[in-house]
Amino acid sequence: MKQQILHLDLDTFFVSCERLIDSKLQKRPLLVGGTGDRGVVAACSYETRRFGVHSGMSMKLARRLCPEAVVIRGNSSIYTKYSRLVTDIIKDKVPVFEKASVDEFYADLSGMDHYFGTYKYASELRSTIIKETGLPISFGLSANKIVSKVATGEAKPNNQLRIDEGFEKPFMAPLSIKKIPSVGNKTFQVLRNLGIDRVSVVQQMPLEMMTSVLGQNGKTIWLRANGLDNPPLVPFHERKSISTERTFGKDTTDITKLRTTIFAMAENLAFQLRRGEKLTGCISIKIRYSDFNTYSKQLKISYTSADHILIPKVMELFDKLYQRRLLIRLVGVKFSDLVTGNYQINLFDDTEEMLRLYDAMDTIRNRYGELSIQKAAGMGARTIGRFHNPFSGEPPTLLAHRNQ
Ligand SMILES: [Mg+2]
Question: How many domains does the chain have?
Answer without folding.
Answer: 3
